[in-house]
Amino acid sequence: MCQNKGPLRTMKILYLYSEVMPYNIPVFEKYVQKYNAEVHVVHWDHKKLTPYKLPKLDNVIYYNRSDYTKHQLKQLANKVKPDIVYISGWMDKDYLAVVKNIKDQGVPVVTGFDDQWKGDFRQRLGSFVFPFLLKKYFSHSWVAGPSQFEFAKRLGFKDSEIISNLYSCNTLLFNKAMEYLEIKTKNYPKYFLYVGRFVSVKGIDLLVDAYKSYQSKYNGNWKLICIGNGDLKYLFENNPGIEVFDFLNQAEILAIIKRAGVFILPSRFEPWGVVVHEFVSAGMPLILSENVGARSTFLIDNFNGLSFTNNSAENLAKAMSTISSKTDSELIEMSKNSFFLSNKINPEIVAASFMSILI
Predict the structure, then answer these.
(1) pLDDT class of 7 with cuts at 50, 70, 90
(2) CA–CA separation, 319 and 311 (whole Å)
(3) Pairing of strands 140-143, 262-265
(4) pTM
(5) Any transmembrane segments, and where (predicted)?
(6) Residue extents of the structural domains in the chain
(7) When you count CB atoms within 10 A of the terminal residue's CB, does the N or C end of the chain come out lower?
(8) What CATH class does 11-170+345-355 carry?
């Protein structure tokens, strides 16, 4: 005879985080919905990269990092009594001091990182030092993709101590853009789209130079939409064909996707790039720099887009010309292929991967 097991015990999760981004929110919600969790999130609230404001969520409690000293963080952790802890990398020394005590009590402490293994001198030195100085703080590492898995191995984590699927976009939200596909089938939009910060590392100067070349050398007639903020915004001035928008929330970006044809991410360095997952989930073909980490997961050349040589405006211009020369039916097929690849991961998979350490 089956007995009623009663209500699930509330699971306590502590996040010692850097800057919370929109893609974190659906994962927090999954912790609450699927695992009866109470999620405590300490987050950096100063020198933020974006003006994003955190939404209120049931059973998710936020704490501003600037309000807590190292001693107060330890007190908070003792009060929460977490079953599992996530810590963003190892750059916050006070966070490290907190998790050392927690790990010594047998609580799993998971560090996440999206650094790609490049094998340069700095990384090789780090792989030598990390096992002796930093590995003691963590029980597990949580990585975004294959290159990050390699990095985790180099840092001394065993296969059994590494979990995958660190990042997912809000797939439920961005999948709504697939509703536009029928409209695009009738008249495919002739717009490139960039979303991100207007800074050098994102390749904004490359994008502007490439677009000029696309117009002059290749006689390209597609427009370019750029959404974001940053010091290099002035580069867009006096450039016919370029529309610029300040930071938009995700719902507002969805409206822009309706009239956008191809997403471009020209980053000189992009450890991962959740934004790539956002736009394949929205069913958009891609043009990505070869240095974008998420490229290995979400882009197959000539299947759902093109990659181009890092730091080459000319190579980017050629890719823009190649993809904009395709027929509407070919672009629609690429759109469907992007959506197909996007299904590799979602917030539920992210949450399940993290909680697999306990279950």
Answers:
(1) low
(2) 13
(3) unpaired
(4) 0.92
(5) none
(6) 11-170+345-355, 171-342
(7) N
(8) alpha beta
